[in-house]
Amino acid sequence: MISKEEVRALAELARLQLQEGEVESFQKDISTILDYVGQVSTQGPTSTQDSSRSDLKPLHNVMREDVPNTPLGKRDELLAAFPKREGDYNVVRKIIQKDE
Amino acid sequence: MSDLPTLSITEASKKLAAKEISAVELAEACVAESQKKNPTLNAYLEVFDDVRAQAEAADLRRAGAEAAEVHPLLGIPLAIKDNILIAGKKVSAASKMLEHYVATYDATAITKLKTAGAVFVGRTNMDEFALGGSTENSAFGVTKNPHDESRVAGGTSGGSAAAVAANLALGALGSDTGGSVRNPASFCGVVGLKPTYGAVSRSGLIAAVSSFDQIGPLTKTVADAELLFNAIKGKDVLDSTSIESTKSEIRNPKRKIGVPQSLLEGVQPEVLAQFEASLKKLESQGYVIDRSIEFPSAKAALAAYYIINFAEVSTNLSRFDGVRYGLSRKGESLWEDYAKSRAEGFGLETRRRIMLGTYVLSAGYYDAYYGKATEARKRLRAEFVEALQKVDSIATPTMPTPAWKIGEKSDPLSAYLADIFTVSANLTGNPAISVPMGTVSEGGSTLPVGIQLTAAHGDEAALFTLGRVLE
User: Fold this and answer.
1) What is the extent of the structural domain holding B173?
2) In which domain, by residue range, is A12 found?
3) How many domains does chain B have?
4) pLDDT (tens digit per residue) in B305-341
5) Best of B237, B375, B381, B383 to disrupt the A interface by mutation (most A CBs within 10 Å)?
6) Of B104, B111, B81, B67, whose CA–CA distance to B171 is shortest?
């Protein structure tokens, strides 16, 4: 069973605000699920180095040249998705502040 | 009621070519059917307001073209899962996070269907961000099974499967991450294909688990699935994991089907009886059933699948922060802005998986979970490659049971366990199809069930050949 502190720490890392009673319900569900998926550690050999790699084709670079491709949206349409907009600017919280 | 929506794509295509019907008639019949049934079924989250205009354009195109230049999908009304982008249309992944989001470009699969001239009827309901197996995790209500409205349609592509089964479209696109096309196909009595990983471009598919996700067709017949698959497949510069379809030229049919007998223990007896009847059908066509096939790593497959699922989901969904698009809520600090937006935007199952993914990827647990899961995945893939050198296909039931009652599986783990047969093909990248194999009786209802066939990488052709024998 994971602890309530661990649930809070996970939520902190995952950028999720927990709601009333959720620490307890997540504690229970996450523990049950981790117990189940944890069986992956106890099965099979510890290493599979190369035993199965004959199916791999020669590796090659999949990156394309850094040149403009099919545009994935017009400028105006992308701007329209901003949650808060001033002119063509996306209004965001001020995050850099002067040292005090 | 017009019987036009009950046509298969192949039948409708012939009638359109012969000018017995028009695309407008066909599209309007599907819309009329949707107006009648969708308020109950909730298969579509939205029926588009330009369906008639799309169909008129298709009729115009046909009138101006030589018959030989016309694609068989010209004027065919299709339903599209709500995680596949159509430029200018809302696409929400059935999440409050993207409730008002409008796609700014077409998914590559959509571009291909537009080139062919297909008509998009609407966007279909699903489990939020394709996380689930019953469409109960949609932020916009469950999709009901057309065969019994007290039951789920399956998921995550439940809306697409229900739309096809209830004749609200002639075919549909879904996406399959751990069975999300095959599971609802089985529950709704339609055909569902998960192509080889990479066969269909994922560009414009809202990512759930990038190393598992594949767009696939849901249709009334195997021939229709083949037609839709051929229309959307192909290497794409916008998806570096896409591949040229390799067809099956490397293989010569062995007329042998493998059945992993030891994995069938948990299957409901009535489902197993239908499965055995399907195998008999294959035997009567000269196929040999090989029950000696074994997958030692299959026991760990479901655990490995979910670990990788959680890990990639938590990573993929980290992009939703309320800053650039999607639901945005303000708190007292930047952290609170993120955390409130994400807490309100994501549903319970989505948040649970993000937390689990954060856990399995954290420094202290990475090797024990994600590391082990990727090893199990490699072993399973090797076992599948080896087995499929001996047999044309591996057969199992698609799901161990027929569709369950809405709300029946409230415990998340019990819902995960239902994916036992479908997740393997996503771990290994093999193509797999679900084809209806009759019905079973449960609680006074007659419910469809499906047989799943899995073939070698790139060998969708084997699935279509065998699927035709079974339907």
Assistant:
1) 4-232
2) 4-41
3) 1
4) 999 999 999 999 999 999 999 999 999 999 999 999 9
5) B375
6) B81
